[in-house]
Amino acid sequence: MRHVLHIALVLVTLTLVSCGETAPTDTTVLPPVAETAPSMSVGGAPNYRVIDVAGGGRIMGTVLLSGEIPSLSAREVDRDPEVCGRDDREALELIVAEEGGLGNAVVLLEGIMEGKPIPEPEEGWRINQSECDYSPHVQVVPTNVEFSIVNSDPILHNIHSYLNNETEFNIAQPVQNQLNTHTFKTAGFVYTECDVHSWMQAHIVAVDNPYFAITNNMGSFMIDGVPAGTYTARIWHEFLGERMTEVTVSAGSDAILDTDLRDLLDERMPPPITVALPEPASTESGEVDSAAEESTVVIVEMQSEGSSFQFAPVDITIKAGTMVQWVNTSRNRHSSTNDSQFEKQVGQAILPPGVEPWASVFLGNGQDFQRIFDTPGEYRYFCRNHEQYGMVGTITVEP
User: Fold this and answer.
1) Residue 7 included in any domain
2) Which of 139, 170, 211, 249 could bridge 109 with an S-S bond, Cβ 3.0-4.6 Å?
3) Are residues 156 and 249 in the same domain?
4) Helix, strand, coil percentages in the chain from 3-state DSSP, rounded to 5
């Protein structure tokens, strides 16, 4: 039975790639990936110019997360135990040292159009799928360089990447040591997940200049060879969001850039607030108005549990005029979509006559999307990412 399911997953994922999703075209099988020392290469924006940065300065600092650190849930592993194992894995979204240093924060300088060349590993920029995880979990990749996607595991992985919330590429890699290549043409933040193994996520930051760094596990970073001047530094973190700050670099000197992202954590995880609800309205006879008791907002959670994806509740019945709010409570990206142009299986999108379809953006953890349903009838919608895995919901709207 396990082999039948595995073959079915291969067929489903290959079908997904063939149904309008983009994918790199260069596919080969290589020997296992090896770590290599860095060399130098040029990439980035087409008009970025490499010059001799005489007397360049450095930007050094620490990204901190002070105060109490929340404990994030482990990643549930529930598929392909012969390769992936059976033990749940620790969360990777918050790597914080005892002293408060925040790992995997990306520091970027904005708008530099000339300077040092872009460093590149000898084997090229790449992401590797090994033992059912991505390596590295967070990385920076210049635009207009060849980026390699490798599957070192002897099982199917489907690598689905989104640049600025739209699919950048989506490919199936069923063969061990299969390699595909891709070139990022646009700078931005790329989220990556495996549609087969939901606990696998990674982040790629596509940049158009070489002035970037990723903090180590102690929160420290350094950017060298910076021409003298004043710059906007963008500090980005997968869980906390981003902050923009100004930094001035003098020739041959060190500029210190320390920052604490505690306020971003507090905004993302505010303390619970107790709201006093109004008393139900009463009629002249003193009876409670039942219509006033009914909620005008219905919450539908977008959930991932291991390799299972679902809307919860999956089927709802509401009155006309009710708002439905979809909230993503999982680590994976989801959408609420009722537009036939995104169907992978014909007939999934169902609407009453005359009603316009809808399609939310891809929602990350904690994000939401709302829609008011005024027209009675039957509705069926799906997640653009996980429709083929059964993430489909229905809404019945009554007059």
Assistant:
1) no
2) 211
3) yes
4) 10, 45, 45
CATH of the domain at 165: 2.60.40.420
For the chain (399 residues), the mean pLDDT of every run of 10, in chain order, is 41 40 50 42 75 93 95 89 94 94 97 89 89 96 94 95 85 95 94 90 95 97 96 96 95 96 86 43 45 68 84 95 94 90 83 93 88 96 87 95
Residues 6+ apart with CB under 8 A from 121: 36, 37, 38, 39
Six-digit token string for 125: 């920029």
Tell me the C-alpha distance between 282 and 286, whole Å. 5
Per the structure block, which two tokens stand in for 1? 């039975």
Domain end call among 211, 236, 267: 267
How far apart CA 308 and CA 321 sit, in angstroms, is: 31
**Residue 1: inside a domain:** no
Answer whether residue 272 is part of any domain.
no
Report the Cα 210 to chain-centroid distance in Å.
23
Domain holding 227, by residue range, is 18-267
Residues 362 and 315 in one domain: yes
Bridging pattern class, strands 106-109 and 229-237: antiparallel
**In this structure, how many other beta carbons lie within 10 angstroms of the beta carbon of residue 82?**
9
